[in-house]
Amino acid sequence: MESGYFVTTPGFILSQFKICPKLYGELSKIKDAIDTDNFYKTVERFIPRLKNKFDNQFGKINPKDVFVIAADLGWSDVGAWEALKEALEKESNENVTKGKFSSRLFG
Q1: How many other C-beta atoms are found inside a 10 Å radius of the C-beta of residue 61?
Q2: Which of 3, 17, 27, 86 has its CA 20 to 30 A from that of 107?
Q3: What are the residue ranges of helices labelled H in the chain?
Q4: Other C-beta atoms lying within 10 Å of the C-beta of residue 19
Q5: What pLDDT sits at residue 34?
Q6: Is 96:85 a contact under the CB 8 Å cutoff?
Q7: How far apart are CA 92 and CA 78, in angstroms?
Q8: Residue 73 DSSP SS3
């Protein structure tokens, strides 16, 4: 399985949004609503409109502004039970327990 990780700065992301004035304007309305009583209403109003525009805009990034680094980062999704077991185990064939545990519960 391959995935991509993006590392960037807020300034670069903002510069990419400014290329598309309509997208930038809608995002600015969300930004301006931060810490106001209207924030959640504003997000609910504009986010559905932005879903496809966001990905499309980042598909237009100038290749001169991008570096691709291939690396095996050893990623593991510890939100999955199997990955959690792998992260906690000392040997691949052992059971893993953590905290108070009584084997009498199982038998």
Answers
A1: 14
A2: 86
A3: 10-18, 21-33, 39-58, 81-88
A4: 12
A5: 92
A6: yes
A7: 16
A8: coil
